[in-house]
Amino acid sequence: MRDIQKEIEELVKSKPVVLFMKGTPSMPMCGFSARTVEALKACGVAFSSVNVLADPDIREGVKEYGKWPTVPQLYVGGELLGGCDITLEMYQNGELEPLLKQAVAGQA
Question: What is the DSSP letter of 83?
Answer without folding.
Answer: S
